[in-house]
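Sat 14:20. Reprocessing the chain from the morning session after the first attempt stalled halfway. Input below, unchanged.
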Amino acid sequence: MKTNRKLYLLTALALMLGASLWLTGCESDSVAPHDQLPALNSEDVAYQAAAVGAAASRVLPQIVDFTRSDKTEYTYTFPPDGSDVIGSVYFDFRNGGPEGASADYDVATWCRMNTATDAPLVFVVGAGGTVELDFNIFADIVQATHTATLLTGSVGTFTGGDYVATFAFDGVVVTAGENYPSGGTMTFVSGGHVLVVTFDGDNTATISLDGEDTWIVNLEDGTVTEVS
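Finished this time. Tokens:
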């Protein structure tokens, strides 16, 4: 049954289950350490997945938007102004895979991009609301097309207050100069729910649960529309 309800991601993330349940900055209101966390329904998890999808559209293109061609290793810190991502990612460029020789970016065929241990990226999801994201990304780079394709094993962790989820990428492609991934999927697992986010090359991505419930997230302005 289609509801065609337009829901706003940034507002919903701040209000869902009450901000104290899983948005950081409200630890004093969180459930007691030994209390059972309130169960998440599929819509709750869709909002979490939407946040990660929106953050990924900011983070992943950095693999090919790298501008220092003379570097084999590099740290990129997201600008403090005008960005909803806070923190740094680290690059290791090589030829021929993880065991290959270090290579300058402009000739490299493989890259690892990761966050540092105990230093996740912070993604701003509303007025004072944040979630934390760890990334460990592996990608093949095609210099001729200025593209990178995420490989098996490209994973991450979502933390929102007391809630923790995992995500994994499959065949996601990013292109230099483009703002959004072109194709590929992200599998998001939280609260016993498994959702798949499908990128289609523009500013939207589709979130699906077992082929039954479906949501569309606008990666640019954060709106989420439930379509089934």
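The radius of gyration is 18 Å.
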